[in-house]
Design a protein that fits this description.
Helices cover about 25% and strands about 45% of the residues. It has about 150 residues and is of the alpha+beta class. The protein has one domain (about 1-150): 2-Layer Sandwich (Alpha-D-Glucose-1,6-Bisphosphate, Chain A, domain 4). Helix 1 crosses helix 4 (about 135-150). The longest helix is centred in the C-terminal third of the chain and has 17 residues, at about 135-150. Interacts with coenzyme Q. GO terms for molecular function: ubiquinone binding.
Length: about 150
């Protein structure tokens, strides 16, 4: 399953990228994320390379490690879930781009792509009605966080 959504936000791309790359804070604003901790950073950029996340929804409660690839230049943060019992695959990709000047707009466009597949087909069936909403819920939470942190 793959879901994507995007939002135009009135903040500079670099500021929004820094919020996306702040994985240690995810548990403070992302629904269903009960824990988030960067376990390894790049010595050159000090950006996350690996993180441990705990997600919980209904009867699902799983802690897993994600391999993280951050590019400040491209405005991307991609996390691939690894070593877990719940997901066959889990890829989250955030992209922050300059919003341009069209129609009097500025700021940035933030896109979120969420791709996942459960190992257990029963979980896939149970979650089918809810999962299309997850990306929208996550980007709404991010938009609220950006407003709180960046004004």
């Amino acid at each position: 399953q793959r879901f994507t959504t995007s939002r135009r936000l009135p903040h500079p791309p670099r500021s929004l990228f820094n919020l996306v790359a702040d994985i240690d804070s995810y548990h403070k604003f992302l629904p269903y994320c009960l824990g988030s901790h960067v376990t390894r950073t790049c010595p050159r950029t000090n950006l996350p390379e690996e993180a441990e996340l705990r997600v919980s929804w209904g009867s699902f409660d799983e802690t897993f490690t994600s391999v993280v690839a951050c590019s400040a230049e491209a405005g991307t943060v991609e996390a691939k879930g690894d070593r877990n019992d719940l997901f066959e695959r889990l890829v989250t990709r955030w992209v922050v781009k300059d919003g341009g000047e069209g129609e009097g707009e500025g700021g940035s466009v933030v896109s979120l792509s969420l791709e996942f597949g459960f190992k257990n087909p029963i979980y896939s069936a149970v979650s089918a009605a809810f999962t299309p909403k997850v990306a929208a819920i996550m980007i709404e939470a991010f938009e609220k966080r950006a407003g709180e942190v960046l004004g």
